[in-house]
Structures are given as C-alpha cells and as structure tokens.
Amino acid sequence: MEINATLIGQLITFAILVWFTMKFVWPPITKAMHERDKKIADGLNAAEHGQRALVEAKDKALVILADAKKEANQVIVEAHKRSAHLIEEAKDHAKAESVRIKAQAQDDIAREVMQAKEGIRKQLVGLAVLGAEKILQRNLDVAAQSSLLDEFVAEI
Questions:
Q1: What is the chain's alpha carbon radius of gyration, rounded to the nearest angstrom?
Q2: How far apart are CA 129 and CA 138, in angstroms?
Q3: pLDDT of 96-133, one tens digit each?
Q4: Please, are residues 140 and 129 in contact by the beta-carbon 8 Å criterion?
Q5: Cα–Cα distances in angstroms (integers) from residue 53 to residues 6, 40, 49, 68, 96, in the given order
Q6: Under 8 Å CB-to-CB from 125, ≥6 apart: which residues?
Q7: Among the listed ranges 3-12, 44-53, 99-108, 141-150, which one has the minimum average pLDDT value?
Q8: How far are the Cα atoms of 15, 33, 48 from residue 18, in angstroms, in the given order?
C-alpha cells in the first residue's frame, strides 16, 4: 500500500479538524457540560436542603402543636379548678346565707311569740279585771286597774 498525497491531505485535514475542535469547539462544550453538572448538583443539593427544611419544619410544627395542646390542657385544668372554687364559694355563701336567714327567722319567730304572749297576757289581764269587776260588781278606777294589771303581769 502506497501512501499517496490524498491520504496525506486527509491526515493533515483531519489533524487540523482535531486541533480546531479541541481549540475552539471542545472548550465551550466542556464548559457547558460542567455548568450543567454544577446546576444539577446545586439543584440536588437544594432539593435535599429543602427536604431537610421540610422535615425540620414538620418537627417544629409538631413541637409547637404539642406545646399548644399542653397549654390548652393547662387552661382547661385551670378553668376546671376555678369553676370548682367558684362553686365551692357559692355553696359556702349559700350555707352562710341560709344560716343567717334561719337565725333571722328564729329571731322573728321569738319576737312574734313574745308579742303574742304579751298580747295574751294583756287580754288575760283585761279578762281578769273584767271578771273581777263583774264579781265585785263595781267599777274600779283607772289607777287601781293599772296597779292590779301590773301586779297580775308580774305574777304571770
């Protein structure tokens, strides 16, 4: 096989094509490929970071929710304690009021009994004086009646 000028021309053309491609075409292609690799890597890192941030946000939300539930339960417990305390105070107040009303009623009853006894005594004295008048068939004067009345009240 003979190497002729066509083959040498093709070799020289191929060498120039390889040199031109390596000098002017290959660097932008490799640069674009590296940039794309970097963008993909950055995107994957951002996605991974986003996943971690999402997990952290979910964890924080769960913690906040748990704290809110604890606080709500504390508020409910405090409300129950307060309502029980208010009920107890109302019961105590009602008992004290009932004792006061009962004492007042007993005082009123005692006063009315005393008034009734006094009224009965006066009526009894009046009847006794009237009976004595009828027995004696004479009228006593007011001063004598009054002194008899006082004596009779003292005896009763």
A1: 60
A2: 11
A3: 999 999 999 999 999 999 999 888 888 887 777 777 76
A4: yes
A5: 66, 19, 6, 22, 63
A6: 149, 152, 153, 156
A7: 141-150
A8: 5, 19, 41
pTM of the model: 0.44
Tokens read off for 105 = 């009623």
C-alpha 19/C-alpha 25 separation (Å) is 10
For the chain, the domains span 49-155
CA distances from 4 to 1, 9, 18, 42, 50 (A): 9, 9, 21, 54, 65
Do residues 156 and 124 lie in contact, with contact meaning Cβ atoms separated by under 8 Å?
A: yes
Q: What whole-number distance in Å separates Cα of residue 25 and Cα of residue 32?
A: 11
Which residue do the tokens 């040199």 mark? 19
**What is the separation, in whole angstroms, between the first and last Cα of the chain?**
170
Report residue 58 as tokens.
């979910």
* Count of other CB atoms within 10 angstroms of residue 36: 10
The predicted pLDDT at position 152 comes to 67
* Burial readout 51-61 (b: 16 or more C-beta within 10 A, e: otherwise): eeeeeeeeeee
> What is the length of the chain?
156
